[in-house]
Amino acid sequence: MTNEQILNEIREANLSYLLLAQTLIRKDRAEALYRMGISDDVADVIDGLTLAQCLKIAARNVLISRFRLEDDMVWSLLTDHGRDDTARQIHASILVASHAAEVAQ
Predict the structure, then answer these.
(1) Closest C-alpha to 19, from 52, 66, 59, 51
(2) pTM score of the predicted model
(3) How many CA atoms lie within 13 A of 12 on its CB side?
């Protein structure tokens, strides 16, 4: 993959992220904050962006989103396909939600 292809992929991911965020925020704000791991203030900014602003932000050569799963325990719960998969998924969701709550405070 060439450098230009990588930059195009980053731009596409950025635009997809922004448009998805706007859709989720406008549909169910509380759920969007949880699912995307963003604060109320960030949701306000994203919700107020015009399409032209989204395109300009998306054109950056840096991803505007990041992995929220920085905890080894969460990765372990998500990748371990044992017998009790439902409990593991619930536990991982609780850990991610608690991290989002800490960030929002």
Answers:
(1) 51
(2) 0.68
(3) 6
CA atoms within 13 A on the CB side of 90: 4
CB contact at 8 A, 64 and 18: yes
| Angle, in degrees to the nearest 10, between helices 40-48 and 29-36 | 110
For the cut 90, the answer to whether the pLDDT of residue 50 exceeds it is: yes
Contact 64, 57 (CB under 8 A): yes
Q: Which two tokens stand for residue 81?
A: 């396909």
Distance set, CA 31 to CA 38, 41, 92 (Å) = 10, 15, 17
pLDDT score of 87 = 64
The residue assigned the tokens 């969007």 is 32
Task: DSSP letter for 83, please.
Answer: T
Residue 22 CA to residue 77 CA, distance in Å, equals: 29
